[in-house]
Amino acid sequence: MVKDTVETVFKITESMNQPRSLSFSVDGDTLFISNDQDKADNGISTAIALRSSGFKKVTPLIYSKSCCGSSCHPVYPGEYFYNQWNQGNIFKWDFTAKTGKELYKIIGGLNGTIQFAPSGKFAYMIDRGAHIIYKAMYDEQTHELQKAQPFCGSRSEAGFNDDIGAAARFRDPAQGCFDEEDNFYLCDQGNYCIRKITPNGTVTTFAGRPGDWGYADGDLRKEAQFNRPFAIAYDPTTETFYVGDKNNMRIRTILKE
Length: 257
Prior knowledge:
Elements: E1 19-24, E2 30-35, E3 44-50, E4 58-63, E5 70-72, E6 80-84, E7 89-94, E8 99-105, E9 114-116, E10 122-127, E11 132-139, E12 144-145, E13 149-152, E14 173-178, E15 184-188, E16 193-197, E17 203-208, E18 229-235, E19 240-245, E20 250-255
């Protein structure tokens, strides 16, 4: 690839027409692509692309319905977890048997992502439609995610409130990312801002003006505005956040405080 350019790696086809999340293997050689299709159980829910092909060849891996959240464990190679959102199923993929093991179900479904902390000790599961964040601890003995528990927000109660745990409120939360201390930075779409969740569940507003959408650069809380931010990633080398500001059709950056 040529540096400092945008290049199309592969084109979405009818069988992979709703990619929802991306996750790299621990060694960075495999890119996992989750696909939210609801046509049939034999539709592609996860495909992979290999570094050896320049990530240009996509190969089906898992066939099932409605996968909108998936993640590789950041410490242990060969561990891939994914969901089936309409029934809230959480699975772990067995690469040897080539089958998924259902670990449990989240009552009411899980329309959102699965994201591991860099330490690998736990994962957050964000339910966009239910305005809640679940936390699942990772069991190093069984190498499985334990039953996810409500962590921040209250299921199906949209709103805005900076507080701790169940007292906090979100509106259509989307993707988040972790920093080096396992703090989580979350795109709160419907509140037009970026929220921060500490490991103990304290929720604060990191950037943007809650409830006041628009487009403006500047001071994190006094001037900056977003319009339904949807995606965020963190570069620890430069301590920079990259934000996909959906309705403003821009990629924005935030330098860590």
